[in-house]
């Protein structure tokens, strides 16, 4: 098994190696799936950062005695999206 990062960074070498060995591998499908995986990973990381920042803001609002119900509801939606992406 090869490192996906290596496969992404050395497409020409990988394709040449596959051809040299006479193998049939759908590299286009791999690259498409890998691109989608990276996009999902990036979105998940952004949402987690947003959730963490919002959690701090919600805690500060609660400490000041302010209502944070709307923020909490919005972050529940973010949490649901994170769970869906992680699944």
From TrEMBL:
Residues 1-87 form the Serine-tRNA synthetase type1 N-terminal domain. SUPFAM superfamilies: tRNA-binding arm. Pfam families: Seryl_tRNA_N. One of its GO terms (molecular function) is ligase activity. Keywords: Ligase. This is Serine--tRNA ligase. It comes from Eiseniibacteriota bacterium.
């Amino acid at each position: 098994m090869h490192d996906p990062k290596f496969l992404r960074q050395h497409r020409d070498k990988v394709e040449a190696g596959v051809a040299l060995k006479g193998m049939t591998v759908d590299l286009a499908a791999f690259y498409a799936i890998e691109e989608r995986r990276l996009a999902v990973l990036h979105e998940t990381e952004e949402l987690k950062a947003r959730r963490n920042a919002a959690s701090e803001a919600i805690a500060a609002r609660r400490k000041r005695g302010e209502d944070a119900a709307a923020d909490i509801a919005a972050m529940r939606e973010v949490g649901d999206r994170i769970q869906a992406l992680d699944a």
